[in-house]
Every structure is written in C-alpha cells, then in structure tokens.
Predict the structure.
Amino acid sequence: MPSVSPQTKGESAVAQLLHKRGAVFERFEDVPLETIRYLMRGAVPGMRVAHLSPELTERFLALPITRDLLCTRAGYHEAPRTHYMPRPVGIDDTIFIYNPDGRGWLEYQGKSYAIEKRDAILLPSKAPHAYGADPDNPWKPYWVHFQGKQASDYLDLIRSTTPLPVFHVAQHQELTFSIEQLLQLMSDAHTHTNLVAATGALSALLGLIQLRMRAAEKRTRTADENVEKSIEFMHRNLSRRLTLDDLASSASMSANHFGTLFSKRHNCSPINYFNQLKVQRACELLATTTLRVSEISEQLGFTDPYYFSRLFKKHMGASPSDYRQTQEIRITSTPQLPSDRTGSFQQNAETQLKRFLALPGSSE
C-alpha cells in the first residue's frame, strides 16, 4: 500500500475540520482561501504572534535603518494537527520558518518537501507556496517575515550555501534564542526605536544562519575531499588487503563516520567499492595477460583464490575463467610481436600477417 504524503494527510485533516464547522464542498481545492482561514480561527493553540499592520509597515519602510531591513511578523505556535497555510500568489514578505520539533510539509515551485525536526524553510517574497503540519506528528514552528532593501541580499547570501528552500540547522539552542529575542522585541510597542532594535536582532539572526550554513558547507566540502582521497588510496593499494579502519584513516575520519558518509556519497560501503575496483582490475588482467586466476588473485591481495572467484562472479555474473574465454577473441585477433627477436623485422611482420589472415572470418 503506497504511503500517504504529509501534505495529503494535512489537507485531509483540514477538510475534516472544515466539515465539522459547517463548510459544504466536494473538493478541498474548491474551498476559497478566505473561507478556510475564517473557519480555522482558534484552531491553532498556544500561538504567540507579533506583527506590523500594513500602514506601519509602509511607514517604517520609509525611515532610516528599518527601510533596509524590517521584521513585519514573528511568531510561534504549538502542535496543531490542522495547521494549513496556502498562499497561491505569495506575499510581500520574505519568509523564514524554523521547526524545532515534529514534522510538516512545504509545496513550492511544483515540488513537495517533508519538513523534519530542526529543518528550516526560506522563501522569497511573492513566491506561491503552501505549508502545513503532518497530522501524525505536527510541527511546532517559529516564523519570521521581513522586508526591506536588504531582504533579497540576505536571501541570496543564505541561498548561496543551499539552493533548496528547505535545509537543516543543527544549532537548535542558538537559533531559538535568537528568534525568541526577536519575538520579544517585536512584542514591544512599535516605535521606530524599538523596531530599530528588532532590525538589529533580525540582522543577527540572518547573519547567524548564513554563518552556520557556511561552516556546515565547509565541513561537507572537506569531508567530500577526504572521501575522494580514500578512493585514490584504494587505487594505489589494489594489491593489499585493506580494512575499514585503514580506509577511514586515509580519509582522516573515524570508521563509523567515514562508512556512513562514503555510503551516502557512493551508495555502497567502502569495502564493497574497494572490491569493485579489484574486480575491474582483475578483468583487465584476465583480458590482457596470460596470468593464471590464482596469480591474479594473489596480485590483488586475495589469499584464497576460491573466495576471489566467488567475489568475481558476484560482481561480473561469470567466473574468472568464463570471463577470460569471452575475451579471448580480443587477445587472439590482436597481432603480437613474436618473442623470438632474432629474425628480421620484415620476417616477423610477415609471420604476424599470415597468422592474422588465418583467423576465421579474416580476409584480404
């Protein structure tokens, strides 16, 4: 049975609430947005919110400092099963949402995103979107809306580290403290002096987010480089028997962290990847040399040729001997200089040409 997305479950929960409150409709999509918002009043418990009216927003966007960056709305609410916010034409605010706990969903640019614990959302102004709670484990989001000349600059700064609208933020306490500080300032009287202080808190919050995202990006980039170093180490040591600890050490990581990161990058374990490289090298040796299977096995660091053969067959679908037979035509049909170097070059060339023409299917 296919799983139901958090968005589908959320919309179903909202539809049930609307029916209970007297709304009559056949399809949820047909319900006007204003009707949804009106009937859902009071359905969000534990809400704290502070916001500027449109008139105040217009006024403070014309004044020094707040014209550059102005928080227009900030808030928090506890886990509502039916939280649902559709904005088919977007709004004038840039939107930041942080989810400390639970799960939610986001629909943006035709894609659906699951919002997990400690995920964040960043959306540009006037961008159509919808978001809400997963009824099975409703989220508890903070949200911050802002405008101003620098709003798009902060958006671009953060998005330069993560182009997706959803990203994970590990610094939970640091982030919630900054948001709570902003929410407190927004709850004071909306004077220019107080809103300048709120602008400072908002700037600090957005600066903190981009700083932490860049640190995470740098750690990811360094980790990726170290994983690639481990692959180079594998190529240089195909003749050795390497353990996970050996490979992790070449990447300057713990074995557990290296194994998890490597598997995430390459969809297989480091040892499995190393064995694949050995099998690829074995294919080359089987096709281009006359070494015995046991000799190839030993050359690639396997002490048990039977284990090597089983591993080879697992990856290639044929035993080493069978694989070599399929490659023999390539060896046979490629003229080779004779090992006897005492004859003239012309005699050697004529001998090779006769051998080649004698092969089945060869013609002048």
